[in-house]
Give the backbone structure.
Amino acid sequence: MTGLLICGGTVVSPTGAHLADVLVDGETIAAVLAPGAGPADIETLDAAGKYVIPGAVDAHTHMELPFGGTFASDTFETGTRAAAFGGTTTIIDFAVQRTGEVVQDGLAAWHAKAAGNCHVDYAFHMILGGVDEDSLKAMDQLVADEGITSFKLFMAYPGVFYSDDGQILRAMQKARDNGSVIMMHAENGIAIDVLIGQALARGETDPIHHGLTRPEALEAEATSRAIYLAEVARDCPLYIGHLSASRALAAVAQARDAGRNVFAETCPQYLYLTLEDQLGAPGFEGAKWVCSTPLRSGHENHRADLWRGLRSNDLAVVSTDHCPFCFKEQKELGLGDFSKIPNGIGGVEHRLDLVYQGVADGKLSLQRWVETISTTPARMFGLYPRKGVIAPGSDADIVLYDPTGRTTIGVETHHMNMDYSAYEGYEIAGRVDTVISRGTVLLSGGAYHGRKGHGRYLPRGLSTYLV
Ligand SMILES: [Zn+2]
């Protein structure tokens, strides 16, 4: 018989972990079987001692994003290859409508960048840079015809992606009607721009001022405002991107306690890195960690609160917000003016490992690890049960994870197109062993077998994660 039998591993899902064999037929999973119950005359893959988990879904990446006069340094080709090395077999990237541009034209431009270039499957959210009659109409068309069921708005970046409260409300009302999800960059960009101007006027130009001019109060305020606006839009589903701080989390938790369709993700950088240790590094070094929302103070309780939020499901998802820029020539655009440093950190390769370290440290259960990196992002964004679960009929996206292995993160070993690592020298108590995408082995025994063009566009359905 043709196919592949993954034998002897521990299959992990959000509801538990159990010894099972997984039978793959072509691009899909044919069966999950009691150990030893599979056919004998078939190619096998030994998974003894390994966790067998659904391929991870990174719901927040920005390959080739134009930002601040440059482009994110990973192309769809290099970024999805790095994702594959890290066990991520699906990315949801962001197509961009710039202000004044036709939404469908922006989408077509992103399809052109990605088509034929991806190593793993990909989908798109749509960034709306200008909410008006035309783009509101386009939302319906994208949901109905293009498989795009989530729209990102920005309360930050006035003059670039910014939407005012009236525009946000109208887009939320539209999303409520057509069943899509509004994703929000929740920072008060109008107030932040005042603080940036004042800091520069005082001669405060170092990277740490990027963080100091984006105080967590302005994330908490914007998060709360978005939650209230979504309530006025008859409980439009709202997903807060890259949540970084305790009081923003408290606002999400309060809404969730009230039974609202409010969700949030955090990112590994907020679970590990701090304003003082990284952004405050001497000289211009801190530019490596300029991202928005910014890294928060290690003297406050943010990181512990975020891990707790992951345990309690007030934080539903860990995404990377992968948006890499090289230090040389790209981050250096902000030498002498922190506000000109391109915003973003690369991490698409390291999310499984960095969240798994939380399991090794006793901060998160094995089940929550799988749920936050794979199952929930698939359900949240209309890819489930094709992605996010090991079950008959699902795509055979499977990762074998070795809990006895070790991973050292660094620029010498990573596969992202970046000249530094945000996690240089981090040691992880675990290792991605084997990566399978739609039945094709991309990584095994340290050897990479993937290729560009293997990854396909995934039209998405509506979210299946709403209350
Ligand atoms: Zn982002």
